Amino acid sequence: MDKHSFNQGLLQFLQQSPTPFHAVTTMQSTLHTAGFELLQEEDTWHLKPGGRYLVQRNGSSVIAFTLGSGDPAESGFRMSGAHTDSPCLKLKPNAVMPTSPQTGNALQFAVEVYGGALLAPWFDRDLSLAGRVEYRRSDGSLGSALLDWQRPLATVPSLAIHLDREANSNRTINAQKDLPPVLALQASAADFDFNRWIIDALSAQQSIDDVDSVLAHELYFYDTQAPAMVGLHEDFIASARLDNLLSCYVGQQALLADDSTQAENFALLVCNDHEEVGSNSSCGAQGPFLRSVLARISAQLSAGDAPEAVERMIRRSLFLSIDNAHGLHPNFADKHDNNHGPLLNQGPVIKVNANQRYATNSRTTALFKSLCVQSEVPVQSFVVRSDMGCGSTIGPITAAGLGVETIDIGVPTYGMHSIRELAGSDDAWYLARVVKRFFQS
């Protein structure tokens, strides 16, 4: 696949994936079309050498893997991981806020901030809503469905500069008070039936017409502005959720492109939910999802004692933790270490931290740099300034939980955790070439 086709596919994937649920559904459809068999965790698995499989948990995390013909305890897995969630505004359970003449009879939804969102860019955007809804059918059984209104439904209006003269110099944002989006103007909240609105959406979007009541929801606001190629020479990709759906797409495309020696390769992609809030969930990187899948693979394909076979397999494996890195911002160059400010469109970034906020070590660095040389792809390094704090990824969590050798990598990005982020138009394609070679190694 050439760079243009790769980037157009990335834009389409971003557009189709406003929430982790939609991202996993989109990935599952693509992988299934490519011949990956869907497994259910509650069923008995019948894995075959040379097979291609996928399994999801909670509808928001997914693992896809290909099996070689040998014993995975002897060869290990080539694994890459990313995360499906992004910082955003999530609807509270009792979504409709009271209206009053004092608030201009504005219909607003109550929200809480999911993850470490950069809040200022959420103002004055055309917002829509998407996510998952649980409901009860008329016969008493339970159902679940994804919804996505796709069109602009709401906005968080800024306060005019005339009413806040210090807005450009001394503004703080109160998440409880300042962020509830405005959806309509009406006499009272009683004029809007939220449950009826959801039921109508289930009928219109999913042709589900036997809904008795709405029981719960996980709905998220998102920016309706479409992903785009930006710049005089289309140097950039601009979109919401580049952190970290870009990495999910890179891993997926690399796995799909690994068609050289399936009979020899054991390759795996895991995309976890909840990284932005600590990964501490049943489907997050701190949960048992990945180890559970590896144990089941080993139980069917490895010879010898089961616990020992799993550990032997892990010790022969390598894990790429793929998450975006902070690109050198031209207006804030002093926020970077002078020798470690990654440039956009100059290749993937190796992320290093002495305090193990990233799982990179010298051995995994050497292996990744060697893959970049073989792929004819430039490579960079990122280290945070010594007087600044450092974020983290699923890398250290996975390394500590499994004991697998791990390296943290990613593409350099501007505006991380903003409602609209910016990456170089060369870098994801570069990285996919390296990850493809990694899966084939």
TrEMBL record:
InterPro entries: Peptidase_M18, Peptidase_M18_dom2. It comes from Pseudohongiella acticola. The keyword Metal-binding applies. Its EC number is 3.4.11.-. Its cofactor is Zn(2+). One of its GO terms (molecular function) is metallopeptidase activity. It comes from the Bacteria. The keyword Protease applies. This is M18 family aminopeptidase. Keywords: Aminopeptidase, Hydrolase, Metal-binding, Metalloprotease, Protease, Zinc. Pfam families: Peptidase_M18. One of its GO terms (cellular component) is cytoplasm. One of its GO terms (biological process) is proteolysis.
